[in-house]
Amino acid sequence: METRSITAEVSMVPRMAEDPAELVPELAAVSAALFKVTGNGSVPRSTISLVQLRAGQIVASTYLTVLHTGFLRKAGESEERITSVASWQDSPYFTGAERAALALVEAVLQTPANGERVSDELYAQAAEHYEAKALATLMFAIGQVNFFIAVALIAKPVPGRSFTDPWK
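Given the sequence above, the corresponding structure tokens read:
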């Protein structure tokens, strides 16, 4: 595996020269459907954005981290909440429901030393905070960000550019 010097500059040019959405225009329909599913109102948009920010942090994607931080700022989230997502376990800024959602995304994205990724106990804790439709929506929100993790890590769009056009 190739390692990069920690002092090397990081390119501000996407790895993939062409926009994957232009190469595969069917992506627009899939993306729109995923956003519609997660925006059904059963889970607050802020919770979904917190989960998706945490996912970007876990997979070490600057693009996703900057993108979801920006979404949260535009939605009026406090800097304390945004910056403490990485250390949510000991942060006083999150509700029990938000903590359950953050625990779920971590369980899905991090391989445990032993046992299941999402234990029955974790599922039961999440189910205490979310009705069935909301829990399914949260599951799809985690799936949505996982869908885009591959794009962020493989194509490597430029962080901080418009969500709708990170390739220009």
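The chain has a mean pLDDT of 90. Try to locate this feature in the token string yourself.
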